[in-house]
Amino acid sequence: MISMADIAKEAKVSRTSVSLALNERYIDGVSISEDIRNRIKKIAAKHGYRHNVLASSMTKGKSRMIGCLGLDQSEESALFVGQIMTAAIKAAAARDYSLKLLSSEATVEQLLDEICGYRLSGVIIRSRNHKMLERLTERLEHYHVPAVLVDTNYSDLGMSSVNSDDAEGVRQAVHHLYELGHRRINFIGFEDFTPFTIVRRGGYIQGLEECGLKLENNPCYFTDPGELRHPFERVEILAAKLLQEKTRPTAIIGNCDEVALLVLRAAWRLGINVPDQLSVIGVGDISPDLFSCPPLTTVARPYLSMGAAALNKLIDAPEETSNMVLPVNLVIRQTTAVCPINVE
Amino acid sequence: MISMADIAKEAKVSRTSVSLALNERYIDGVSISEDIRNRIKKIAAKHGYRHNVLASSMTKGKSRMIGCLGLDQSEESALFVGQIMTAAIKAAAARDYSLKLLSSEATVEQLLDEICGYRLSGVIIRSRNHKMLERLTERLEHYHVPAVLVDTNYSDLGMSSVNSDDAEGVRQAVHHLYELGHRRINFIGFEDFTPFTIVRRGGYIQGLEECGLKLENNPCYFTDPGELRHPFERVEILAAKLLQEKTRPTAIIGNCDEVALLVLRAAWRLGINVPDQLSVIGVGDISPDLFSCPPLTTVARPYLSMGAAALNKLIDAPEETSNMVLPVNLVIRQTTAVCPINVE
DNA sequence: TTGAAAGCGATACCAT
DNA sequence: ATGGTATCGCTTTCAA
Fold first, then answer.
1. Distance CA B269, CA A180 (A)
2. What is the distance in angstroms measured between the alpha-carbon CA of A341 and the sugar C1' of D3?
3. How far apart are CA A24 and CA A20, in angstroms?
4. Are B172 and B205 in contact (CB under 8 A)?
5. Which domains does chain B carry?
6. Are β-strands B220-222 and B279-284 bridged in parallel, bridged antiparallel, or unpaired?
7. Is the distance between the Cβ of B47 and the closest atom of strand D smaller than 7 Å?
8. In the structure, how far is the CA atom of residue A40 from the C1' atom of nucleotide C12, in angstroms?
9. Residue B78, CB half-sphere, CA atoms under 13 Å: how many?
10. Chain segment A114-131, per-residue pLDDT in tens
């Protein structure tokens, strides 16, 4: 592949001139003369010259590449990470940066090899592995690589984060149900008490309080880790159990959309009509919601904004640690309705 | 950040020795002596040395990075691309390669800047934009960058591809329905006649023939591009129309899962029970299938294998152009059942 | 087994 | 406005 030196030779100018011309650089407002610049450009185009980013990144010691950890579908079937990534890549392209994928299965050492090896200018991390994050952030700090945690926030790690205001969303969900007349609500979820569950449950409890509802009448339930089945099945079992009690809830909020969709399924299996006999709300607004019957009412998390915000933060304020919380949006579709007078 | 030269100085050896030691390189089976090597390694570890991949890639002219185009969620809501990507990243990591994301919204020239600029060793492409592909492959050939098209195959482009045997899958789907007693089947899909629709329809027609069914009694329907609604709505309208005809089909095959899920929805709206009154089959096996009511019977495409195959092909046989077709698997869940005696 | 020196492609500084 | 030269960090001959 043709290099700047080759062009310089053919144009009978110095490599410096070629560099200045091709990069459109101006020192104190002036640069290479029009005609020389055009001559250089023409030669470059003729040979299909491509700027060697590896070389320039090396001299500069930075690579305009940003790493993405955990934005693939490896660990969990977290569908939405794709959206975060998509927004990030778009934001990156707009600023002439690009994204490099980091394997979710790599060890911390391997990650550091990739991150430092390519002199990445930052890393977007989506992980709930606290222990790993702890070691990783400590090392990243050592190498002065800015990082931002997206979709989670472990405040003890002292690292920047971008998240959505899920507590507020769930709070609104409770109000929505209350206004529809529901007085027997349940909040259910997986048993893993990662921050996101705690935060959302917090919003739930606050919502109850504001509506004058008591937690003991509107309890939270979590799946039983003892059950040796797939987590999805556990949720369905839990939901089915709740729906078969004699004073069953008239509304259920899932701590994420997957849970809500499984509640829909449990209801369907039991012949309970949603939303006539039961209202259901999720958190997320993931794509399967679009296909559920009926379409799911949910707290829409701004995945695209989250991806873009994370990326921009790394570029605009790499040093400063910040914790961004983006607004959510209760999307009312068709799984919520006025509470039936007689559920019993 | 500490460099090899720094280490060489501290260890009082040449930079060559450091390079050889750290890379564990052996020339004719021999290399740096045990103790010197250990000394070098210890110093490197002490300072947290990280190999500068930019520098070594530059000298070598290749970067052990592979580009991914169209594996984000930009254009369509193609959920499965994430799985392809995830498999690719895993396969890459296993071979000490890594993935770089290319923006789906970039122009061909911008893509080339990224691809050649970073001296990528290959590109995985997932796109159905024939015109763009045409120009891109022509240029990539010029720069000797191997590429592989995944999830599509435009045979006229003469480029390598990795795809799944969807025709065979749909053929099997027809047989499955036939064995359940169905004699009034429809194949429906979006109106866009990209290769994948044509291929799947081909499998459908072959299946019909093998079962002795006539196409005119088991027709294909496609949405009306004239309808100025969202494609999803168009599918639902089409499905609803078919389901309301006096001799409605007893089974419908969607040309992809999205279509099948929308058929489910249309049936649900009309109070038609699936699978008792209507059988439905999709193609894909995307994640929303897991949440549908009932769980969708579908032709499962091997996304993970496709991603891995595409990546391995680029590394193992970059020169040779090949067209790989991976086997699919009819996954029978709960949307297919014995044909009801009286549909009328 | 180890070292010296050239080169990869581009940038930056200092001259002219 | 343009050119010369050192430099970035590493690899690769070629000698010793």
1. 23
2. 88
3. 6
4. no
5. 4-51 (1.10.260), 60-164+303-327 (3.40.50.2300), 167-301 (3.40.50.2300)
6. unpaired
7. no
8. 20
9. 19
10. 999 999 999 999 999 999
Overall average pLDDT of the B49-57 stretch: 91
Residue A30 CB neighbours (<10 A): 7
**How far apart (Å, rounded) are the C-alpha atoms in residues A221 and B70?**
40
Residues 277-306 of A with CB under 8 A from B: 287-288, 290-293
Mutation for testing the B interface, residue in A53, A108, A114 having most B CBs under 10 Å: A53
Question: What is the residue-averaged pLDDT of chain A?
Answer: 92
Are A54 and B119 in contact (CB < 8 Å)?
A: yes
Q: Which residue among B92, B102, B291 sits closest to A292, beta carbon to beta carbon?
A: B291
| A158's tokens | 């002292």
pLDDT given at position B193? 79
DSSP tally for chain A: helices H, then strands E? 12, 12
pLDDT at residue A77, as a whole number: 56
Helix (H, G, I), strand (E, B) or coil at A150: strand
Partners of residue A102 in chain B, C-beta under 8 Å: 98
* Burial readout A38-52 (b: 16 or more C-beta within 10 A, e: otherwise): ebbbebbeeeebbbb
B186 SS3 class? strand
Instruction: Give pLDDT tens digits for A1-42.
Output: 889 888 898 888 988 888 888 888 776 666 778 888 888 889
Place of tokens 């040395």: B49
Tell me whether B106 touches chain A (CB under 8 Å): yes
Q: Which residues of B74-89 are buried (b: 16+ CB within 10 A; e: fewer)?
A: beeebbbbbbbbbbbb
- Tell me if residue A13 falls in helix, strand or coil: coil
The pLDDT of residue B344: 38
Residue B343: predicted pLDDT: 42
CA-to-CA distance for B332 and B238, rounded, in angstroms?
A: 25
Query: How high is the pLDDT of residue B28?
Result: 61
Residues of chain A contacting B55 with CB distance shorter than 8 Å: 58
A101:B89 CB<8 A: yes
Q: Rounded CA gap, B172 and B329, in Å?
A: 9
The set of strand D positions with any atom below 7 Å of a protein CB reads: 1-5, 7-13
Q: Is residue B341's pLDDT more than 90?
A: no
Mean pLDDT of A180-206: 93
